[in-house]
Amino acid sequence: MTAAVTALPQGSASDRNSLVKPAGLVMLVVLLVALCFLSVAVGTRDVSWAEIAAALQGQVSSIGEAAVAMRIPRTLLAALAGGALGLTGALMQGVTRNPLADPGILGVNMGASLAVVIGLAWFGMSMAAAYVWTAILGAGAAAVFVYIIGSLGRDGATPLKLALAGAATSVALSSFTVAVVLPRNDIAGGVRSWQIGGVGGATFDTIQLVLPFLLLGFLISLISARKLNMLALGDDLAAGLGEKVALARATAGVGAILLCGATTAACGPIGFVGLVVPHLCRLMVGVDHRWLLPFSALSGASLLLLADVLGRVIARPSELAVGVITAFIGAPFFIWIVRRQRVREL
Length: 346
Fold this sequence. Notes:
Pfam families: FecCD. Helix content is about 80%, strand content about 0%. It is built from 14 helices and no strands. α9 (about 225-230) crosses α13.
């Protein structure tokens, strides 16, 4: 009798727990939609609801409607880029089992940035599609380089060695980028503005260009969720359970590189989103990547939209680039993680 009585509340608690994650996902979707409306409505110029409604219907007869029409692609790009960066951070942390893994900290952003700058300065790159491919190749080369350097020596690729290799590589690539740009006054201004990271110049053409790469990256990432759960058990145990460890890492890595490279090509190197978001999402849903990845994508999109709106409001009538806002948020968070986690494995 006692067992039967205690079984009921346990089952009820289990049912409640099984509803928490889907409910949280729905809440994040609602928050994302609300932030999209906020992003369209708020800016350096005040607009009325009538102008917003008219602009959403394609009308641009007034200055307010034109302002809203310019914010629409900006909002879409911010959501896509934030989702991609949040997802990339979760993937990189899962692949490396490193709580400090992030496209910026591991040098992947700077690899993409340097590749684009070299293409502009030395090869006269002008085709829009070439920017995306070049950024993806640069991101991939930087990721492979950091992982190889971090794997040298005893104990292989430990979280601390990867973080140090990524930080050193990021500084070196940043210096190379400056060296390439300095003699080229014709591109220096545009490159410096792009390197801050922002979504202010978004257009539908830009979104159409990077969207296939982002969608492919999202698909590969979600397919990798189960593989990342296996990797979290440790390489030996994952291999013992039949998982091909190298292939699992490579698959998730390709998804991360596609997402990071395409985002960097469109927005510039935006840092810390991939670091902050996965940690916050683990507090909500735990370490199961089947939930962590979609939560990270939605949370990253929400964070970047919020940062973009704050950048417009704080510096009115001017704007702060979204990369500046995310750096203000992420830098203290990075210090907190280092102090709390002591750079141990996930």
